[in-house]
Specification:
Largest sheet: 4 strands, antiparallel
Order of helices and strands: HHEEHEEHHHEHEEHEE
Distance between the termini: 32 Å
Helix content: 55-70%
Strand order of the largest sheet: 2-1-4-3
CATH class of one domain: Alpha Beta
Strand content: 15-25%
Number of helices: 8
Radius of gyration: 42 Å
Length: 329
């Protein structure tokens, strides 16, 4: 689930961005159609005014043209040859023409578009329509989409490569476990033959330890075979499992010069649904870390299993070693 979360987030992000892109372009198309209809209407009114023989037809056409310009939303400022504003329309504020704010906004318009000089009219300073400002966002949206697609592709390739490597390692581990099975079975048979012929108690004890180590190797082989496979669920007595781990290490830690005591205790009902192989593996790893933490000094290692409320379990492995140095914490 955690591995698939980034993929889901990328897919959702791309889908949202694509949806926004489609809706935004559709709104721009509507604005373009509205602009085209406005231009057509302007042409029709001017043409009608030019063909109308009445004296007021031209003025009416010009007034209509001025109204359409105002509706287009284009900010326009007219100035005389001395640079003084004489007329303005569609400004984002309401100020007198001689105010400094109008001249400052006029310089902003000049940075957007080069002013036009018209003889007998003056200089025309104009900005962009809302449609033009909206079109400038399109390249940004396209760039974001391309970047997100490239990022998603790179992540997919990386995830696939990592999954392939994990599959290879899991296959190698299972194959190694399979190959170990035959010699381990042979060793088990040889130990049985030696036990039948052994009369010395010390030899019998050694054979018992050898058999214990052989069982241990078989468990390790089983663990390798389980790599890459889903865990099993069965009833497991965690207290008994902890005691078995403690007994295994108890027979192998120093008992003379640097004595190490490995103890196991339990509290409550400790039968849970779990994978016995993986649970034993985890407790062994914690116990080995605790023994290593003693750093060759005598000490105690305690494995404590306790049933918790709501059907939970706590396994605590403690040691009285020196711990992590303060400067490294």
């Amino acid at each position: 689930m955690r591995r698939s979360a980034p993929v889901v987030l990328v897919i959702v992000g791309v889908a949202l961005l694509l949806g926004w892109y489609v809706l935004y372009t559709r709104s721009l198309v509507r604005d373009l159609r509205r602009e085209a209809s406005r231009v057509g209407l302007m042409y029709a009114r001017v043409y009608d005014g030019l063909n109308d023989p009445s004296a007021e037809a031209a003025n009416t056409a010009l007034l209509d043209l001025s109204g359409h310009i105002r509706e287009s939303g284009v900010p326009v400022i007219l100035t005389d040859p001395q640079g003084n504003p004489t007329a303005a329309v569609n400004l984002p504020f309401d100020e007198p023409l001689n105010s400094p704010r109008v001249k400052e906004y006029m310089r902003e318009l000049d940075r957007e578009n080069r002013p036009l000089v018209e003889k007998d009219v003056g200089t025309v300073h104009f900005g962009n329509t809302p449609l033009v400002r909206g079109l400038t966002i399109i390249p940004l949206l396209q760039t974001m989409l391309i970047v997100m697609f490239l990022a998603a592709g790179a992540y997919a390739l990386r995830t696939r490569g990592r999954a392939d490597r994990e599959k290879i390692w899991a296959g190698m581990a299972r194959e190694s476990a399979h190959q170990l099975g035959t010699p381990l079975s042979s060793l088990s048979g040889w130990i049985e033959l030696l036990r039948e012929a052994a009369d010395d108690p010390m030899t019998a004890t050694a054979l018992s330890h050898m058999e214990s180590d052989l069982v241990r190797l078989q468990r390790v082989a089983n663990r390798f075979e389980r790599i890459g496979r889903p865990p099993k669920k069965e009833k497991v007595d965690i207290g008994e499992l902890s005691e078995r781990v403690a007994a295994y290490f108890r027979a192998r830690v120093p008992t003379l010069a640097h004595r190490v005591n490995v103890q196991s205790s339990r509290s409550g009902e400790l039968v849970f649904d779990a994978d016995p192989v993986l649970m034993e593996w985890a407790i062994e790893a914690l116990t080995k870390n605790a023994i290593d933490a003693l750093a060759g000094s005598p000490g105690n290692v305690r494995i404590f299993a306790k049933a918790m409320p709501e059907g939970r379990l706590r396994v605590r492995v403690e040691d009285d070693g020196p711990g992590i140095p303060r400067e490294l914490r």
